[in-house]
Amino acid sequence: MNKGSILKHKIKNAADTGAWRNQSPYLDKKTCIGCGNCVKYCPDACIVLREAVKKGKKVKFANIDKKFCKGCGVCAQVCPVKAIAMK
Amino acid sequence: MNKKLTEKFYPGHATCAGCGIPAIVRHVLDEADCPVVVINATGCLEVTSTLYPYSAWKVPYIHNAFENAAATAAGVETAYRALKKKGKIKDKMKFVVFAGDGGTFDIGLQALSGMLERGHDVLYVAYDNEGYMNTGGQRSSATPVGADMETTPAGKKSSGNKLPRKDMMEIVKSHHIKYLAQANVAYIEDLRKKARKALETEGPSFLLVLQPCTNVWKFPTSDYVKIGKLATETNYWPLYEIEDGRYILNLKIEKPKKIEEYLKTQKRFGHLLSPKNKELVKNIQENINREWEGLIERENGGIVEQ
Prior knowledge:
The complex is a heterodimer. By secondary structure, chain A is of the alpha+beta class. Chain A has a domain at 32-86: 2-Layer Sandwich (Alpha-Beta Plaits), CATH 3.30.70. Chain A is built from two helices and four strands. Chain A has helices spanning 37-41, 74-78, and strands at residues 25-27, 47-54, 57-64, 84-86. In chain A, 31% of the residues are buried. The N and C termini of chain B lie far apart (47 Å). The longest helix of chain B has 23 residues, at 278-300. Chain B is globular, with a radius of gyration of 19 Å. An eight-stranded mixed sheet of chain B has the order 2-1-3-4-6-5-7-8, with helices on both faces. Chain B is 35% helix and 14% strand. By secondary structure, chain B is an alpha/beta fold. Chain B has ten helices and eight strands. The interface between A and B is medium-sized, with 32 and 38 residues.
């Protein structure tokens, strides 16, 4: 009897969901307040909060990795300051 | 790539653009502080995350059949307890089931009832997108009144689905489990808090999470958070938890919006806005008000059962 199959997680087999995109998110670093709303809601966990030092102050801003981004636009919708634009 | 959130569930899965299911999975699993085993019923999540030859899961994952996700989880948990007793496993482990509303409300109800009744230490998360979205949007017993679905089309003689939603929370509550909660993917912090509580609970726990489906509810891919928030702001989807039979309402909206505001955002309810369906919308609003009042009553009543 066939006992079913076991699939192992191998990143190289991942579907290239980035190719689905027909619009891409662009972040305006000056407007971004680093609240992390987009990080929570991104369905593909493409966004991380990065830290940088600006004028001696620590600031946080979002960083979008578009490799698996499907271009849904959720990040732009949930952004409270409209720092992400879909183009 | 967000390393923390992709630790257990990696991208490269094929959920529709703008689907909230991966967000639910990531945030629930992120709350677990020990190794987890995921059990999955057939549904959107299963078909999209395990596209041969790829698996998006970085944790042990088992899929069996549509109806027996809870029974499979019960078996896995029993095997774990037996091995722990023999000293072959020493780590603490958690077992999480993800199932859609089809696999919970309709097809998997019997298995779920058995698992809850036997008291296995499993967290059951049902993401509720109100229909069989994976096969094109057929009606399930979670579909609300008036929805235009594939098997209940709206037209000249019909105004969509006629039958009301099954009250799953009450069904699960009747099993006297320690913790169950209704959450919403648009309120992630609330969802995480509930997931943490549920994972800490000894014995079975249950989460019912609203998951707006961009494909069949028919709204733009960017709007799942907006529509999820509207569902709670209109009291259509109240956030509450039941701990040891005691109801706790997590969010009381001071001035709930009218249900029309929620209905008009989705094309599946498009026909309800025409004048001939005015009566039906009024009925829907009355039902929502009555259910909300019932909830408040039960909350004030304190311990209702047990």
